[in-house]
Amino acid sequence: MTTPYRFTHAIVRTPAPSAIHGIRADGGPDPDLPALAAEHDAYVATLRDLGLAVTILPALDAFPDALFVEDVALTFPEGAILLRPGAATRAGEVAFIGDALAAHHPRRLSMTAGHVDGGDVLRLADRVVIGLSARTDRAGAEELATLLVDLGYSAEIADTPPGVLHFKTGCSLIDAGTILAVPALADCPQFAGLEVVMTPPGEEEAANLLRVNDTILVGDRWTATHALLAVRGHAIRPLPTTQIARIDAGLSCMSLRW
Ligand code: CIR
After folding, report:
1. Residue 137 falls inside a structural domain
2. Residue 42 CB burial class (10 angstroms; 0-12, 13-18, ≥19)
3. Pocket flag, ligand 1, residue 247 (CB < 6 Å)
4. CA quadruple 234, 123, 94, 20: dihedral sign
5. Can you tell me the distance from the alpha carbon of 218 to that of 233, in angstroms, rounded to the nearest whole number?
6. Dihedral angle at the C-alpha atoms of 189, 192, 195, 198, nearest 10 degrees?
7. Ligand 1: which of 247, 251, 254, 255 to mutate, most ligand atoms within 8 Å of CB?
8. Is residue 3 part of a domain?
9. Left (φ > 0), alpha (ψ -120 to 50) or beta: where does 136 sit?
10. CATH number, domain at 179?
11. Are 81 and 73 in contact (CB under 8 A)?
């Protein structure tokens, strides 16, 4: 298995005007479209600055959440897997990612049963963890586990704490042996053998950070998390995430990477 955050390529999708109507669990205000677009632009610029070749797909106004391409597929050097997102309004997004994947991934597998959102799938150095959630059910997780084995990856199924949208809303990989996690995931059995670092109090949303090669992308509001990462010797890029957070998203959600 390759290092789980060693990337040369990414796919993103331009936010559509309809993105301001993206799904959010707890109500709250719409994002501001120009500010949301600026957050997306900064994200793309950062990925490019870190050396990734980024393919930008056109906006899909019929699908408000389509900028969150992470949820519709998984991408690995060995191939791609088309998922079955768990929100009814997002199922149709999958049909619009296939061509972009075909251009890079000759080997493409597809789920046929149940539901999985890519936000519930965490790549570790030695395996892939699939979190059960309101979006990812056991039938989907079990089918995905077999597809991952076909690509050469072992998979384990975990639980996502209640009230956490996606497994990766609550945790991410800082380095091959270290997870940053919200307290509710501190005792996740799938993290046995790894160091689990807790998000600082009040910075639970920082848990959805994104390691890209030797740099960690992290929300710019989470200054205690910045300090924690700096003390551990990590290079960070703080990025604005206020608008995407209004529609329950974080940094990993906006790209597919391999
Ligand atoms: C949704 O509820 O589906 C979107 N508003 C947010 C998706 C965030 N994606 C992710 O965490 N991977």
Report:
1. yes
2. middle
3. yes
4. negative
5. 15
6. 10
7. 247
8. no
9. beta
10. 3.75.10.10
11. yes
Q: Tell me the CA–centroid distance for residue 47 and ligand 1, in Å.
A: 20
- What's the confidence (pLDDT) of residue 95? 97
Helix (H, G, I), strand (E, B) or coil at 196: strand
Quote the Cα angle for 60-64-65, to 5°.
100
Residue 4 lies in a domain: no
The domain tally of the chain equals: 1
How high is the mean pLDDT in each 10-residue block of the chain (258 residues)? 89 98 96 98 98 98 98 97 98 97 97 98 97 98 98 98 96 98 97 98 98 98 98 98 98 98
Check if 256 has its Cβ closer than 6 Å to any atom of ligand 1.
no
Q: What does each C-alpha distance from 114 to 82, 160, 200 come to in angstroms?
A: 13, 17, 35
The enclosing H or E element of 142 equals helix 138-151
pTM of the entire predicted model: 0.97
Q: How high is the pLDDT of residue 141?
A: 98
* Domain-embedded: residue 192: yes
> Which residue's structure tokens are 């940094």?
251
Residue nearest to atom 1 of ligand 1 (CA): 23
* Full residue range of the structural domain in which residue 245 is found: 9-257
For residue 62, count other CB atoms closer than 10 A to its CB.
12
Q: What pLDDT score was predicted for residue 132?
A: 98
